[in-house]
Amino acid sequence: MRIMGLDFGSKTVGVAISDALLLTAQGIETVQRKSPGKLRRTLARIEELAGQYQVGRIVLGFPKNMNNTEGERCERTLEFKEMLERRCGLPVVLWDERLTTVAADRALSESGVRKGDWKKYVDQIAAALILQGYLDARAFEKEREDKEA
């Protein structure tokens, strides 16, 4: 089983996949959305990728405001979460995504990618950062439980 990470936006959805050992996340694709209100093709592509990579869970970035409040983007993300669960039949975990796009921009800058090419990669990298945060927290929790046992 692998875990999929998603960075849901109004025009694109960044997609990342964990390795089989659930240690690392890699960006694999940016799904282009034709219209903010239409998600059928987007959901179909995510379902296809979930089957292809034998995904057992999806981690969806949850865009809280910096002051920890939930705005309109959170509402749209919660609606997308429900659609994903119905379409894919997989559990969807919300994960705080604050500053992941900033971190993705920084990673692209430091890697020497031309600024004009950033749009091609930023959503995938943000999805990988969301997923990696979840994987790291999961591993930390398991390690803590093992020490307590």
Task: Please tell me about this protein's structure.
This protein has 149 residues and is α/β, with parallel strands linked by helices. The protein has a single domain, classed as Nucleotidyltransferase, domain 5, CATH 3.30.420. It contains 4 helices and 5 strands, in the order βββαβαβαα. The protein has helices at 40-52, 72-88, 100-111, 118-148; strands at residues 2-8, 12-18, 25-32, 55-62, 92-96. It has a 5-stranded mixed beta sheet with strand order 3-2-1-4-5, with helices on both faces. The longest helix is centred in the last third of the chain and has 31 residues, at 118-148. The protein is globular, with a radius of gyration of 15 Å. The mean pLDDT is 87.
Order of helices and strands: EEEHEHEHH
Number of strands: 5
What's the number of helices? 4
In whole angstroms, how far apart are the ends? 25 Å
Major sheet: size, sense and barrel closure?
Answer: 5 strands, mixed
Structural class: alpha/beta
Assess the beta-strand content as a share of residues.
Answer: 15-25%
Low-confidence stretches: none
Could you say which overall geometry the principal axes of the C-alpha atoms support?
Answer: globular
- CATH class bucket: Alpha Beta
Give the helix level as a range of percent: 40-55%
Whole-number count of domains = 1
Q: What strand order characterises the main sheet?
A: 3-2-1-4-5
- CATH overall fold name: Nucleotidyltransferase, domain 5
Whole-angstrom Rg: 15 Å
